[in-house]
Every structure is written in C-alpha cells, then in structure tokens.
Amino acid sequence: IGRLVIGQNGILSTPAVSCIIRKIKAAGGIILTASHSPGGPGGEFGVKFEVANGGPAPDIVSDKIYQISKTLEEYAICPDLRVDLSRLGRQEFDLENKFKPFRVEIVDSVDIYLNLLRSIFDFNAIRNLLTGPNQIKIRIDAMNGVMGPYVRRILCDELGAPANSAINCIPLEDFGGQPPDPNLTYATALLEAMRGGEYGFGAAFDADGDRYMILGQNGFFVNASDSLAIIAANLSCIPYFCQMGVRGFGRSMPTSTALDKVAKVMKIPVYETPTGWRYFSNLMDSGRCSLCGEESFGTG
C-alpha cells in the first residue's frame, strides 16, 4: 500500500467510505467500528473491509483474507510515524517499502459526501421544507457516533434546520455510555422529544452511519420494512431516480413484503436475498437493483 486516504480527525461514516472509494477509484477501504454495539476501552471493536465498488467484501474475498491471516507469523509497526489527522492535505513519509514516498491524504469526508448528496436529492425542495412557511420541524439523533459532523453540516449548515434539530452530535469513544443502536430501547432522547408532538420527523443513526430509525410525529415508529416501502413509493421525488430510472428493488428475506406491494404497482422487479449487504452489492453491480434494504434498518 502506497497511499492512504483518511477522513479529517479520523471521522468517516460507512456511506462516506463507499463514496470516497468510488470517487478516487481505490482498491478498497477499511472501517474501524463498533457499529451499533457498545464502544470504548471495555466495549466492542470490529473491522469492515469495503471493496472497489464501495460495498462489503463478498464471501470469496473475506474467506481469502481469513485464510491468509492464518499464515501470518509476525507483523511490523511504525511507532514513529506521526500523522496529523486534523490537517487537511497530503503528508509524505519515507518508509522501508516499495512505495516512495508513502502518502497519507487527509480529506474532508463530510464535504465529499455532501457533494454526492447534492447530485442525488433536490436540496432546494428540502431546504424549503425545513425553512419555508410550511416548514416541518425535525429531530435527528447521531447517538454520539460518527454521524454527528455529517448531520450538523448537511442538515443544519447546508439545509437550514435549526441547531437544536440535531442532538448527540459529538463523537465519543464510548458513545456516551450506551450502545449506538437506533431503536426504541436506546434512542430514548429522540423518542421522548418526538412524543411531545413538537417535531414532525425524527431519525437516529448508528455509530458508523449505515443503520437508522425513523419516527413520525408523537413518536410514531416506522419499522424498517415500511420505511423501505415508503421510500420506494416516493422515488419520483428524488431527481437522481427521475434521471436514471428505477431498475429493481432488493430486500433481505426477513424484511416484510411491503416493498413487493409497492413494486407490483410500479411494475418493477423485486429480488429477495439472504441477510447481508454484500448480496445487494451483487445486484447493484449487475444493474438489476436501484434501491434495497434490510430488516435491521440498512437502506441504500
């Protein structure tokens, strides 16, 4: 490896990693995450590997990595390599490997991801919804995971939502002492705020930003299956799909058939997969799927 691209301050959501992999045509990406599990020194920790298409590694790649890992007898570290993760730009180092120099590039991942979203959604319409005469008040809980900077920058700074629309936006190593699992058990701050009736839309994200929960006014819970179906039924509101068309839908086996009913009306095929995002990647790579989701609140 001769070049690393890292998010400023070490902040990178899973969707942003996928975006950057495709943007710079990287061989892959590594995400260090506790996902929706407890974090911190006494918590859990995992490694996710994304391949060149921006999606999770397929079984054949994961199996190969595992087989190679069993043959490792030693590893080398470079404790004197000091990388300033807060400073945007390229830093170069002279290491004892075949790449001269070794490059580390620190990027503003929030800005890169924001530009991608601009190419997909109608920002003017969303901004008018959040700030216009018939505005809807929203409440978004980042659960002290990686999504805080994205929520602040995109919804508040870019789209004009009031600052109090976003809560728990400071990334903490232990996520504030609770699992960053976006459900009714752990997203209690969001649930209580929504039950008051002041907000018309609420959402919570897990630690690395690839799961969410949706709440309606008065705390009305929208389950993952219905959320996916509602998005599918309203794709005509998203400019990207108006331009590119909708080729098909995908859902995991445990996800309800609500999506199937929408697809039947729209005359669009639905593909049922085993649980695991890597199966959706196969459908997307083959050009058969434009929107997919699973029972654990992952949608893309």
TrEMBL record:
Pfam families: PGM_PMM_I, PGM_PMM_II, PGM_PMM_III
Coiled coil: none
InterPro entries the UniProt entry points to: A-D-PHexomutase_a/b/a-I, A-D-PHexomutase_a/b/a-I/II/III, A-D-PHexomutase_a/b/a-II, A-D-PHexomutase_a/b/a-III, Alpha-D-phosphohexomutase_SF, PGM
GO-annotated biological processes: carbohydrate metabolic process; myofibril assembly; striated muscle tissue development
SUPFAM superfamilies: Phosphoglucomutase, first 3 domains
Gene3D superfamilies found in the cross-reference section: Alpha-D-Glucose-1,6-Bisphosphate, subunit A, domain 3
MF (Gene Ontology): phosphoglucomutase activity
Keyword Phosphoprotein found: yes
Species annotation: Haliaeetus albicilla
Keywords: Phosphoprotein
Keyword Phosphoprotein: yes
High-level lineage: Eukaryota, Metazoa, Chordata, Craniata, Vertebrata
Protein name: Phosphoglucomutase-like 5
